Amino acid sequence: MTEVNALKSTGIYELKVLKEANHEVIALGMKSAYRDRPQYKKVLDNDFARYKEFDHPNIFKYVELKETENLGTCIIMEWEDCRPLSDYVAESHSEEEKKAIINQIAEALDYMHGRRCVHTALSPSVIFVTTKGDNVKILNFRQRYADGLKQPMDTLKFVAPEAKDGTVTLDARADIFSLGQVIKYLNMPLSYRPVIDECCSFGRNERFPDIDAFLSALNHQKRSRADYHEGSNTGGGIQFGNKRKGLALVGVIAALVVLTAIWIFRQRSQADDAANAPQTEQVENIDANAANPTDSQSVGTNAANATPTTDVSFLDELMPQVKTDLDGIYAKAKGKKSLNKKVANYYKGLRKVLLQRGLNDDQLQAFDKAFGEYNAQKKAE
C-alpha cells in the first residue's frame, strides 16, 4: 500500500489514505509513540470487533484489522473521494442542501443508536462529504488523548457537558448535543434556532430524547424514515432499504386536525339545519326537553334556562386515532423518560389543536379524561 494523503488527527491515532491495488482505503493506526503500548492496541482491537458489522451508507465501513509495515496494527476502512465538512461549509450551498447534510448525519447516528452505540465524538473533524453527490461519510471512532496530548478547543465545544466530566453513562442525547453544534457550524438560518437550542441544552433531560424527535422538529412534517434491510449488492455486502419508521409528531397532529375539522363541520351543519327548521319543530323539541330534564336540571325549570348537555360526540372519531398513536408511542419508547416526554408532547400538541378548533372547556375536559384513562391503561399493561 502506498500513502496518498494524511488526514488531520490530534489524539493518539493517525489517519492516512492509502492506495491498495486499484482503490483507496483509510488506515486508522496509532502514532509511533503509542504503538508499543498494549493497552492502546487492545482498544484498537476492541473497536474493530465492536463496529466491524456496522454497515450504513453514511458511515465509513470497517473492512479489516491489519498489520502494516509503516503504521503497525491498523483498522482498514473503506474510502471514497471526499472533502472534510470544513471545506463543504466554505463552499456556497443552499439551506436545503445543508439541511440534507444534517438529515444524513442524523440517519447515521440513528443507525448507531439502534445498535446501542453512542458516537460521543461527533464534530466536523470526523464528518466528510463526497465530491460526487454530496453524501455524508462519518468516521466512527472516538479520538483518544494521552500524556501531553489535549483535545483542542475547536473540537471540545462539540462535546456534551456530561461527556466532559465523565460522571454519567452517555446515551443518545450526548450525540444530539454534538449534532446541534454541527448545525451551528453549518450556519443555518435563524429559524433553526429553536432546534439548535433544544439540542444544545446544558441539561440532557431538556434535549430531544432521540433522533426521531429531533427529525420531527427539524423537518416540520411526517417523513418516511430510511432504514435498512439485508440484501446482496455487487460487492457482496449489505444494501439498505426501509425497515422502521420514526414517529413524526407533527404529522400525527396534522392528521388529527383533519378529524377535528370534520367534527367542526358536522357541528356547524347541524346548527344550520336547526336554524332553518320549521318553528313548530323547534317548539316541539323544547317541550320535549322541558318534559325530560337532565340530572343537572330541576323539575319545573323551563327550556329557555336549561343548561345544554355538552356534546362529546367528537371523541367517537378522535379517540380511536389517539389510541392508535399512543399504542405506537408505547411500542417504540426507549426508556421511561423518553416515553413520558413523547406522550406529554403528543398530548400538548393535540390539545392545542383542539383548542384552536373551538372546543369549549367541558369538551376539553372530556378529552382530557378520555386521554388520561387510556394512557393510564397503557401504563398498567
From TrEMBL:
It comes from the Bacteria. One of its GO terms (molecular function) is kinase activity. Keywords: Kinase, Membrane, Transferase, Transmembrane, Transmembrane helix. It holds the Pfam family Pkinase. The chain crosses the membrane at residues 246-265. The keyword Ribonucleoprotein does not apply. SUPFAM superfamilies: Protein kinase-like (PK-like) (SSF56112). This is Protein kinase. It comes from Hallella faecis.
